[in-house]
Amino acid sequence: MIALVTVAFFSMYRMNPNPPQVREITLLEFYQAMEQGKLVEPVTRVVDRDEGETFLTGEKELDKLDEKGNPVKEHYRVALVPGENEATMGDLLNNSIKVVVKERKSAFSPFLTQLLFFAGITALLYFFIYRRMGGEGMFSFGKSKAKVLTGKEDKNKVTFADVAGVDEAREEVQEIVEFLKDPSSFKRLGGRIPKGVLLVGPPGTGKTLLAKAIAGEAQVPFFAMSGSDFEEMFVGVGASRMRDVFSEAKKRAPCIIFIDEIDSIGQKRTGAGALGGSRYNEQTLNTMLVEMDGFDANEGVIVIAATNRPDTLDAALLRPGRFDRQVVVELPTLKGREEILKLHGARIKFANDADLTRVARGTPGFSGADLANLLNEAALLAVRKKLDGVDMATLDEARDKVIWGRERKSAGYSQKDRETTAWHEAGHALLQVLLPDADPLHKVTIIPRGRSLGATMALPERDVLNRTRKQFLAEIRLCCGGRIAEEIFTGDISTGAAQDIAQATRIAREMICRYGMSKRFGFQAFMEPSQFSAQDLPPAFSEETSREIDAEVKRTIDEAYADARRMIEKNRDKLEALAKALIERETMDGRDVEAMVRA
């Protein structure tokens, strides 16, 4: 593009070189131009420049003839200096001597103007086209953006030793590593390795890390890209990039193609009537389906994809011959969390009282990314406190910060707000101790943390794999405790229970519509309007059923609210003592609260 613009520019300049203007003027105009500082020079009559002075040399005809009959000419040389030689000038002016002059116009000025113009055009072309191509040039527009890790030469390769907490998933992909190392051993017995492996699991569980470990163990080329790399403003670019990455992979087989967040291009196709970007994504998806299991053989090319939304993927993508195998990468168990903490904690200096096993027990539901973030927060807190190592108190503080947010001790609020918050959190803490199906109380505080003015923190004793109806009802009662305590002891209610109300309503609705835990509806589920698409018409239930569901939700919450109120009124003295202790101490450990309530 730059070469074409340059050729066009010089062609235009050659056709129009902008020569200096030549014209005939009188001596008076010449004199005036010289007074104004304009640069002019005679052509037919010569201007001599001598030591900074300008002389006009010329000739004029006299009114007489020579011997041969020719006019007699008189030559002259006049110094032209503004304000001087006025008599001589007057004589010259009276004779109306004309001077042919050439105006000195620099050719550089129009050249520079045109150059700047074409430079601006080139810059605009660069910004709107070259930058849209990813900075790789016009002919690489449809090329893939995959990052290639080259097996043995990769110094930062990841192996299974760098992956912890996903033992089952690691065992399931082990045979892929063995196939990539020695494909002939599988072909000898007629076995066929899966063409595609889909890693499914919540965010942060290590799906991408596991895919890198497979390539690192097998020591084969690893093409890493994201589903968004196939999306572009121009039609057909995604399909072109998909074909290109498979073409490059075939040349370097055996190898692995890893596509992260595949749901961005592999969503369910909506039919021929779809318009807009979904049609373009379908082109990319169709190309991928053909490349994985079409007429061309892709021997030695294994596609690994990751997603946390497998329900949105197209059915053709999940059938045998494409993504033959789905590997579930779940949240780590207690043992897995301990292994992850030890793996990430290898580079951190701990104090003598630091116990990673205790931290693992207190972090159910944490992913590998959450645990890595916890250790990093603990290290930063230790540096801020100028400690020699990360101790247990710092680890507990980092965990609370990750779960509930950082303490905002500087937030100024009135004494009345502190008292209202103390009664509210005391109501939650009291029920947390009294309800047998509730999780153990960990800590209660009236110091603002995150967006809340206070917090009641509970931690389960073990990993929660299944929930019962009694546990759900206990959670609804816990949500009601704060509002009830406020109403009893302050005679008013505040906005502090907004989140509690929303959580209680959500739990009750899920019990009825999703888990079939309602006596009114029994063993059946109802799909909420926000959970079905246009293809699921007609709606899953009628308007009459919807009204009955709303009534059942209200009944469930009202019964839980009444039960919670009876328990608080029965232990009114303990609640009052707990609230006063919170006002005085601001933060109380769960064991201290339980000792006060059980006393």
Q: Explain this structure to me?
A:
The chain has 4 domains: 19-104, no CATH class; 143-328, P-loop containing nucleotide triphosphate hydrolases (Rossmann fold), CATH 3.40.50.300; 334-404, Helicase, Ruva Protein, domain 3, CATH 1.10.8.60; 415-598, Peptidase M41 (Methane Monooxygenase Hydroxylase, Chain G, domain 1). It contains 21 helices and 15 strands. α6 (174-181) runs parallel beside α8 (207-218) and α12 packs across α14. The longest helix has 28 residues, at 543-570. It is α/β, with parallel strands linked by helices. The strands form 4 sheets. The chain has a 6-stranded mixed sheet with strand order 7-9-10-11-8-12.
Give the helix/strand layout.
Blueprint: H1 2-15, E1 22-26, H2 27-35, E2 40-42, E3 47-50, E4 53-65, E5 71-79, H3 86-94, E6 98-103, H4 108-130, E7 147-150, H5 167-172, H6 174-181, H7 183-188, E8 196-200, H8 207-218, E9 221-226, H9 237-251, E10 255-260, H10 277-292, E11 301-307, H11 315-318, E12 323-328, H12 334-344, H13 356-361, H14 368-385, H15 392-404, H16 415-434, E13 441-445, E14 455-458, H17 469-490, H18 498-513, H19 543-570, H20 572-585, E15 587-589, H21 590-598
Parallel strand pairs: 8-11, 8-12, 9-10, 10-11
Antiparallel strand pairs: 1-6, 2-6, 3-4, 4-5, 7-9, 13-14, 13-15
Helix pairs in contact: 1-4, 6-8, 9-10, 12-14, 14-15, 16-17, 16-20, 16-21, 17-18, 17-19, 18-19
